[in-house]
């Protein structure tokens, strides 16, 4: 692996994905970004009816098809209603930690193609005015968007074209540090998606092919629980590439690839998980094995939808998931290396 070029491509790709707004249900633009990168690398791309993106990579041997799957949809918000004084009340898309959104800049996208900037704020936003400015709950009933337009009423907001059901996307604040950290909202799971696209570049640049026919899938409804429901039916194995958890009694760090043995839906495939552990040990990949108690993935959804596939899960360790997330180049590099080993690239 050419570490310098790989790192530059990986972080540039992550930046392109992370700075493209894509809450579940509003993913067309990020899908185009993924497709554009794949086409630049010379790969064929398709989409299913629900919008999942698939990149086909022919293998050296026929008879078995495996899949790698990351998701490019993110957490977000939607306009629930408009107040009499022109603020936007909100409903969650997925599971953002709402108190972390107080003070975040955002964009509102209307159904007719317009966009406006704003700020998510507590309904008691000023310490000089409200006795409960520090203590008021930060939830759907007590957070609203202050729009950066001259509005004094519901009618003024509606004149801008803003209605209930419009998407509200908060600023990911993406930064890449000289010390190798990627910090941003939505590293879950655009960090993993960037790892998969970087793996594609390495295959192309080094003239490598996986052992089996391989489908790299980028799902677009994972955060709302049905991204994996329409994965390809011809997969023998499925490797989910999603964020690894960091904290409490978990052993993973931001510098490692995490191998998940069990999440909130139950254990992953024993043989696949054991194989990933052995590949890591035998090839010097820095890894950890953990249990994610508050976690589900596209694999669990695929199983519930009746997909007859064995599945395992890996991903870079991510700190502060669903909040102000952070991972490191080393964790992403280890994820790419383990995915390449799993595919038996030559």
UniProtKB/TrEMBL annotation:
Domain of life: Bacteria
Active site: 222 (proton acceptor)
GO MF annotation: an example: metal ion binding
Keyword Protease in annotation: yes
Cofactor-binding details, from the entry: Binds 2 divalent metal cations per subunit.
Protein name in the entry: M42 family metallopeptidase
Names of the cofactor(s): a divalent metal cation
GO biological process, one term: proteolysis
Lineage, top ranks: Bacteria, Bacillati, Bacillota, Clostridia, Eubacteriales
Classification via InterPro entries: Peptidase_M42, Peptidase_M42_aminopept, Peptidase_M42_dom2
Similarity field: Belongs to the peptidase M42 family.
Binding residues annotated for Zn(2+) 2, in chain numbering: 188, 223
Binding-site list for Zn(2+) 1: 71, 188, 242
Xref: SUPFAM superfamilies: Aminopeptidase/glucanase lid domain, Zn-dependent exopeptidases
Record key words, sorted: Aminopeptidase, Hydrolase, Metal-binding, Protease
